[in-house]
Amino acid sequence: MYVFRKISKTETSFIKGVAMLFIVFHNFSHAIPPWKGENEFGFSFENTSSFLQLLSDKPSEFVRLFFAFFGHYGVELFFFISGYSLFLSYVNKKIRWAGFVKNHLIKLYPTYLLAICFYFLLYPLRFQQFPDLTHLKIAALDLFFLQNFFPGHYPFKLIGPWWFFSVILQFYVLFPLIMKLFHRFGIKIVILLGLLSFALIFSLSTWIFENWDYTFFQFFIGWLPVFCLGILFAWLSEFKLPLWLIILSFCLIILGNLNIYFWYFVPVAVTIFLLSAIRKLMPLIAKNERIFSIVTWTGKSSLFIFAFHPMLRHPFVMGALKYNSPVLTVLLGLVFIFVSLLAAWMVKKVENKIQKRFIQPYLAKRN
Prior knowledge:
The chain is mainly α. It has helices spanning 9-29, 45-57, 62-70, 74-90, 97-127, 133-143, 163-185, 187-212, 220-236, 243-256, 260-263, 266-286, 289-300, 302-308, 314-323, 326-366; strands spanning 2-4, 239-241. The protein is built from 16 helices and two strands.
């Protein structure tokens, strides 16, 4: 039996930090060929089969292959924490929709805009040419968080992980409505929303993909069950999480990468399992103050890391391909993480100055 207690601010940062490290190492690892893919936005047994074959052929590359296939599950923790934290922050407050969305957009947009500008500064250095009109059109869609509304691989064309920004903004737009329904109908409506979104995903995902070339995970609907789970856990505050549920969650993660019908349960299952595991291990990691502080800082700076790290990985991937050494590949991945954290620290400094110089005076005048 595991007693789930309220997640403190420090724990929130630590969980986000672990999730961010998972994601960064994943985005490095799965960029190194040969790689078939992972079951993130859709299920393919070929991806699982290829992963298992690579493990069999290259057991010395277990660390890289493991994170290449499973590291993306850090994303679920972010959506869970978003639902959890937003609920606790606003459960006793009256939310004005326009003000709520504007305030969160102001927190999100400067970093996102800096990342897009950095992409175009970096582009000529990497490709020895200037971006064409197509890239400018895609950037315009990204600027307005519209990239996810286009089919196929469109959301990932400029910088793959930026699909997250569009989805998180969708949740900011939706959250005031969820809270309005909560105050009227109670937690039952949140559970119902989670179940209805799961039913849509389970019953229509294949049809949507085959006929429209979309995936529900390009939109808030795909992540709504996890987001609602975060709200439910925040509402419960403290409760007993049975051991059998944690074990079942682990089994569903494995089965979900072997069979499409189990795959639909994976986002919720991986959230429950990782959340339980991280919180259980956290006191042990906290004994090393330096490591604990680095992970916690990573969580606090996750927005900046998320925005910038994909643009920094190319030389490290090229190095891994050149030397083709399992040990060196992991070391390059760790250096890539360090560089990503350093870049985030620098961007955070710049963004803070922009906030103080332009945005805060603007908000003060408006108020």
